[in-house]
Amino acid sequence: MRVKYEELKDVFEEKLINLGFDTAKADIVAGIFADNSRDGVYYHGLNRFPVFAQLIKDGLVDPNATPEMVEKHGLIETWEGYNGAGMFNATVCMDRAIELAKQYGVGIVGIRNTNHWMRGGTYGWQAAQSGCIGICFTNAMGSMPPWGGTMPRLGNNPLVIAVPRTEHPIVLDMAMSQYSYGKMQEFELKQQQLPFEGGYDSNGELTRDPAEIRKTKRALPIGLWKGSGLALMLDVLLTALTGGRSVEQITASGKEFGVSQCFIAIHKPDLHESLITGILEYTKSESPGEISFPGENTFRTRLDNLREGVLVNEEMWEKVKGI
């Protein structure tokens, strides 16, 4: 079914206030949940909201927490998240990175003891819409074995790179697993198989069954050993920058909270947009209708959902309204 964007946001905001958020924070967090569904990332929008609500009820997300800077080295700042709402903390940190970048050219903000930021691409769009290149990454609970192993020792540790552009930004938002766990949940809700093998089943065989992969926590890394190495290095970088909890420590707690994140903004007056346009046209030239660049389909879905109403899973919609 379809629901108007404004109604979706209003319901999220009402529920967040009931869960202990003040009006200002509820507006930001509700907007991010609604934006994620609006942009077609339903597994970090409506479909994730009940999980987020339960984390608040379990005391793992503090709706009253406000992040603050605790350490500064030149253009690099370390912030403490106090286990507040990840979306609010991430918005504040990217805003600060943008502020630094517009003053000095580059801004880097790392935060520890924060929570899931939902769609990482949100903060890439945030940077790009402010005229900055944005790079951000996070660690997560172990959900992927290192190459050559069978135990989930690596997080899928999403990485985001965004570049501003007049029409709309180019935004790459990718997990280190072939399919994010949210995307696999979406396929599972639709009772569909993955288009390509996404991990291993209980017998150690490659499978397209999202339910099996979510059960074994043996997701396939992108680029096989290369994705495994990149996931590891992102965790190492975050721990080095923030002194926060690593994937090992997050996984040991049994629930995903208290993660570390990094937000980088780069500001330069001339980003040579005509040259970038040439890159995009060359990339798509073989088959413009079939080939898309990162962020293109997201923007198209956004316009469709704003015009026609946001697609929602009816069962999940009723579940959220009942919180």
Walk me through the structure:
The chain is of the alpha+beta class. The chain folds into two domains: 1-58 and 288-323, Hypothetical Oxidoreductase Yiak, Chain: A, domain 1; 63-177 and 221-271, 2-Layer Sandwich (Ribosomal Protein S8, Chain: A, domain 1). It has twelve helices and eleven strands. The chain has helices at 5-18, 23-38, 49-57, 86-104, 121-129, 181-189, 210-216, 225-242, 247-252, 273-284, 296-308, 314-321; strands at residues 2-3, 68-73, 76-80, 106-114, 133-138, 159-163, 170-174, 199-200, 206-207, 259-266, 310-311. The strands form three sheets. Strands 2-3-4-10-5-6-7 form a seven-stranded mixed beta sheet, with helices on both faces. A two-stranded antiparallel sheet has the order 1-11. Helix 1 (5-18) crosses helix 2. The longest helix is centred in the first third of the chain and has 19 residues, at 86-104. The radius of gyration is 19 Å and the shape is globular.
